[in-house]
Structure formats: C-alpha cells, structure tokens
Specification:
12 strands; DNA-binding; D-Maltodextrin-Binding Protein, domain 2; Arc Repressor Mutant, subunit A; about 300 residues; 3 domains; elongated; homodimer; three-stranded antiparallel sheet
Chain lengths: ~300, ~300
Amino acid sequence: MRYLQTFRLIEAVARAGSMRKAAEDMNLTASALNRRINGFEEEFGAELFERLPGGVRLNPAGELLLHHYRAMASDLERVQGQVADLTGERRGHVSIACSQALLPYFLPEQIAIYRAAHPGVTFSVNVRDRAQAEQELASYSSDLALVFEPIYLVDFEVIHAIPQTVDVVMRSDHPLASRDEIRLRDCLDYPHVAPTHRFGVRHLLDFAARRGSRQVSPVVETESFELIRHYVLHENALGFQIPIGLKIPNDGSLMFRPISERDVPPGNLILGQLRGRTLPVASARFAMQLATALKDYQLARESIV
Amino acid sequence: MRYLQTFRLIEAVARAGSMRKAAEDMNLTASALNRRINGFEEEFGAELFERLPGGVRLNPAGELLLHHYRAMASDLERVQGQVADLTGERRGHVSIACSQALLPYFLPEQIAIYRAAHPGVTFSVNVRDRAQAEQELASYSSDLALVFEPIYLVDFEVIHAIPQTVDVVMRSDHPLASRDEIRLRDCLDYPHVAPTHRFGVRHLLDFAARRGSRQVSPVVETESFELIRHYVLHENALGFQIPIGLKIPNDGSLMFRPISERDVPPGNLILGQLRGRTLPVASARFAMQLATALKDYQLARESIV
DNA sequence: CGGCCTGTTGCATTTTTTGCACCGCGTTGG
DNA sequence: CCAACGCGGTGCAAAAAATGCAACAGGCCG
C-alpha cells in the first residue's frame, strides 16, 4: 500500500536511529526523507522524534503513533485476507513466535496439515524465549505465540493452555533409566545439561531446586535444546525438556521420563495472542487448529498414563 | 491527514452512489477521482465498487475496507488526543448520540461541567432514536450513545445503566393531579399525547396497554417530546416522558408523576459505546463523568422516594 | 432515434516529490 | 585546539505524480 509509505519511513527512521541511515535503507535521499518526516510532523501536529546530536529517537508521541500504525497495518492485512476469502481462494500469512520445544515435531506437523488444506497460506516461524514472545505480539511482529511458561503480561491473551511436565532426557543405559519415579535430587546428583535461565524449563528447575535447598549446576549450559538432546548421548548425562519436544528414537538409544510432580510441578504450554486484537482469518483458523491439536495431544497423553 | 484522502474519496463515492457526484462534492474532476479509485483498487487487489449502469455501489470488499478505514480514522483521532494530552493541554472532540429526553437538562449541564474543566474539548450532540443510535456507533459517527431502552445489538457495550419510570406529564389542574397513585388505565381514559412507536416510552406504554387489553390512542402523536410538554398546557391532556427530561416549572403550571410500576415497569436509560473500541481520551473521560452523574442522579431520586 | 447520465481515457498543465549541493552545528580524535 | 566527520535542515532545479479539460463508449428513457 503506497499510501502507508510515510509510516514505513517513520518506522525505518525509528529503527535506524538516524535519518541518513534510514534513507539509505529505504532507497531515498536524506533530504527527501527529512522533508517527509518534517511534513508529516507538521500535519500531525506534534514532533515524533527527539533530535539528538548524532541522530534521532522516537519520543512518546512517536511511540504512540508507531503503535497505531502497526495495529492499523495488521488490521489492513486482516481485511485483505477477508477480501481474498470473498473472491474464493484462501490466501494469507501466519506468523507465530514459539518456544524451541515446538520445532522438532509439533509445529512442522501442524503447519503441514494446515498447508495441505490451504496451499495459499504461508508461514513465518520465529523462535523466541518466553520474554521475547510477548513483545513480539505487542509489536505486531507475530500473530500468535506458543510458549512454555510465558511471563504473563497485561497484553497477553490466552487462547489455549496445556500442562507439560519437565522430563529428564537420558541414554537408555543411564542408572536412572530403570527407576519407577525420578526425583529431582537424584537428577542433580548426576552430571546434567540444562538450558539457560531465559527458559521456562530452567526456571521451574531452579525454583524446585531452591525449595529443596539444592542447586542446578549443569556441566553444560546452553540455549539449544537440540544440543541438550544430542549431548546426553555422548557424556551419558541428564538433559531436561518438555515432552511435546521429545520422541523416542527408533534405535532406542534415548529415553525420557517425567520428574516426580512432588518435586517439579508441571508448567503450562500456552497458545496466546495480543489482547483484544482481531487476527487475520488465516491466523485465527490456524490458532483454532492448534488449540484442537493441543487438546487432542493432552487427551492422548492422559489416556496413556 | 492528507494521506487518508483516498479513503475519504472512497467514502464520498459510496455515499453519493456516483463518481461524478462525489467528485463534485469533493471539489475534484470526475476523471481525477476515477483514476484514484481505479488506482487504489488495483493496488488493493480487488474492486471496491460494483459498476452499475447509472452509478456505482460498494461491493462486500468495499464495505469491509470502509469499515476498516472508519475504525482506523477513529483510532488515529484517539492517538492525536493522547498526544495532545502529552503536550499538556487537553484537546479533543466528543460525539454523542442521545435520546431527546437528555436534551433539556441533563446533557447541557454535563457538557458545561466538562467544558468548564477542559475548554479545549468540543462536542457534537446527535439526537437519534434507539435504533439509529447503535448504527451511529457502528459507523464510528458517534463515540457514545445515551439512549432510553435501546434495542440491544451485538456491537453495543453498556457502560452504565439506570432505571427510569415512565411519567405522566399534566397540568396541575388535571383530574389525575391529586391522585396518590396513577394507573395506566386512568391515563388511557383521558385524552393523551404520545410519542411515535420509534421511541422507548411508547414501546413500554404499548406493551403495558396490550397486557391490560387496552390500547394507546393518542389525540396527538409526535416525534417531539418538547411538543408533548407544551401541548398538555393547551388541551389539558396527558403526556408521557421519562423523569430525566422533566423539571417542575417555577409557575407550577406543569407537574409529572410516575405511572404505577404495577402497570408499566421502568425502562433503562443506557450509556454505551461500540463493543471493543478504545475511545478517544476526551470521550472516555466524558463517559466516566456521565456514568458518575447518572449514578448520583439515581441515588438522589431514590433518597427522595 | 436523440438527449442524458454513467464510467473511462489521451493529453497538456499544475502540483508535489525527489536529488543534489550546501549550510550550521555538535561530537570526536589526532 | 582545530580539522574531520556525521548529523539534521534548506534552496533550487529536475523528475514524478496528480489533476483538469475534452472527448469517447455504453446503458437508459422518452
């Protein structure tokens, strides 16, 4: 939409922190950009940027306007999707911010199912930790968030939630593999590999360990759950992950078991969106599919247990 | 905002039903307008109008887009209001759709109170019946609605409600003036003046009369409550009105008494807005003031009775 | 059929936007 | 301490976009 160009320029300036840099990014002369910004500010009735020596920065008015623009642009996309629906074929784009655990099995399968029914719909999958995911929603960068143990913010609206235990991942020949019930203290006695504090799994572990006057002291600390899963095969250490990100490999080399709920209570895997926002049709439908799939997943697990 | 001009043109075309008429309204040539519309349709990816012989009409896609525009324009105004707040002085505009009963006393007083505190805020007061008022909200033509007995629609969100009896308005020398309790059947035996069916008062009267196998048969039927109040002075007939629109005149010529609640149950005077909409600051604050004033008004009446 | 209204298009004109060169200013670094 | 650098802002001419005017094609009505 050409008429939104000014807003895109404002956004670029805000991002670059400098008119000249933004001008280069947007393939424009600094002077042209400068005049558009000044012109808009005059028309709008207020300055949008603080002019600092060395660049510019959004002032509160600019923040407000930029937020309005993002909300509006997102709503326009929704309308375009609805119109595309009207004309027959289903097009659109779904952007989702999610935790790492969803990457190996759950999300790829769900996206494939959706795209089989609606080939015109494209996807963006952004891997974000629980704090980033909600900012992602607030800035309209993602339509949906599927996150383990998010830090609840006011703007976060829960669509669906399922509990997830924290599981121990280990080699089949690990001493703990034969235990009926795995206690946290047993895990901490063996070498273990854990995610960093940014992740919900670690948060639950730390909390539970402190309660038992113990401490999580990983031999390897990482931001990658994929690394955790592979590392335990080498050192025969323990890893931690939520079950939705786990699947017993065919060769039986790896196995996983929940930590006793007496020690570590289950966390929540939560599907959410920005509060009060009307999602584009494609995203709204995908959200419904995810909610159903999560529900089915939970029912299946309960019936096994 | 100059960049919204295309949308304003689209709205004008939709309103006029013809590009040439709209072009005249907007001080443009038909050719220029035509090209802007066609250009936008191409950019948008869908036609907005059905081309009929004799003019154009919005198609569903156009309806959707126009609704998006109105919502967006209203949100932009909200942002401008917030920015004005930021820079110190409170500016803004409040538009309210209301029933006639609010015109003589309640609304003028409330607006004056608000403007005394915030001289920068201007007002639009649109008199609408209970059906129109909600369409007024849905098209973003009014921020607030204050209506007696509205027909609830899905898009209507109640901010505050107070009950209002249906009162009889009469001259002090009317035979019913001395009665302790006024029954509906007594009223219907005397010549009476009533509003048309569009109004909540009449709706309640009709309903109550049917229940008693009677019928409202006014000697004068009108859309103006002001006329009702003045007419009863001449013929010495009975009029009907809700108490918030009534005040005993100094000369004591006119008086009013509620109809027994056994016959006509009280209706609701309801302050509402469009569901889910974030109101501009000025409107939101005025709504809060109105809600408080309505509450106080109700408390004051209850303490008298 | 002819008048009348509709949306649409080619072309000249006007208005707006852009690019280039330059200014003034504050920070930075030799 | 002064020169170099990067910043936002401005005057002016060129480029681009929007507009007005006139004319065209097509449906409707008397």
